Amino acid sequence: MLQPYGVIEGSDLGSVVAPGSTSYLRMRRPERTSSDAERRALLTIGLICADFGAVVVSAIAAYSYRYESVELPFNYVLLAILAAIVLVNTMRFVDGYSLDTVVMRAPRFGTAIVTWSAVLIGLITMAYFFKVSGVLSRIWISVWWLGGVGLLVAARVLAAAVLFRWRHEGKLVTRVALVGSGPRIAKLAARLEAAGDPAIELVAAFDQQLDTATPGAAFDELVSLARTNGVDEIVVATATLAEPQLQVLLRTLRSFAVNVRIYPEVFSVLPAPAKIGMLCGTPMLSVLETPLGGWKRVAKRAEDIILSSIGILIALPVMLLIAIAIKFDSSGPVLFCQTRFGVNCNPICVYKFRTMTVSSAPDREAPQARRGDSRVTRLGRFLRRSSLDELPQLFNVLLGDMSLVGPRPHPVALNERFAATIDDYLSRHCVKPGITGWAQVNGFRGETKTTEKMERRLELDLHYIKNWSILFDLKILMLTLFVGFVHENAY
Question: Which pLDDT score, from 0 to 100, does residue 34 have?
Answer without folding.
Answer: 46
